[in-house]
Design goal:
Pathway: Carbohydrate biosynthesis; dTDP-L-rhamnose biosynthesis. Keywords: Isomerase. Helices cover about 10% and strands about 40% of the residues. It has two helices and 13 strands.
Length: about 180
């Protein structure tokens, strides 16, 4: 596994080793020991995963920007197993030197890239292909009372969504009324 750091400490882009031949390919989609070793080498905390989630989205569906507050905050290891997304994580840790900054990465079934998003980040994605299947490993259970959301097109965050790649943006009624980012 190749680990790529980002401009925000703790956010990691993971590229698994893929072994292919004329029959197809094989990869370890997750290996706790290798993941822990990579985090240890970067002096980052080791998460404990407790829940896996799986979603299906059509092209143009935008989910987010979601987070959970402490004590139910969630770290997420995310990847796409079918289709393609533009995935975004925003640092919402008020004490962080990168507070309010975001990182975006394309995740697809083709590139097999994964994104590690620790606690303290809002997260969202836009599906760039129909029938996109997205997997999340989370470090805490979902808790409705602890959930929060930031509006996806907040002007302060100025996220560079690849809107030219979709015909229309489809957002849930719940996400349409999300709060603005508090700077």
């Amino acid at each position: 596994m190749k680990v790529e750091t980002t401009k925000i400490e703790g956010l990691l882009i993971l590229h698994p080793n893929v072994f292919g031949d004329d029959r197809g390919w094989f990869m370890e989609s997750f290996n706790q020991q290798r993941f822990e070793q990579a985090l240890n080498e970067l002096s980052l905390p080791i998460p404990h995963f407790v829940q896996d989630n799986h979603s299906l989205s059509q092209k143009g569906v935008l989910r987010g920007l979601h987070y959970q507050n402490a004590p139910h905050a969630q770290g997420k290891l995310v990847r796409v197993v079918q289709g393609k997304v533009w995935d975004v994580a925003i640092d919402i840790r008020p004490e962080s030197k990168t507070y309010g900054q975001w990182v975006g990465v394309e995740l697809s079934a083709e590139n097999k890239t994964m994104f590690w998003i620790p606690e303290g980040f809002a997260h969202g994605f836009i599906a760039l292909e129909d029938n996109t299947q997205f997997l999340y490993k989370t470090t805490n259970y979902y808790n409705k009372e602890s959930e929060g959301a930031i509006i996806w097109n907040d002007p302060t965050l100025a996220i560079d969504w690849p809107l030219s790649e979709v015909d229309e943006v489809l957002v849930s009624d719940k996400d349409k009324i999300s709060s603005k980012f508090k700077n």
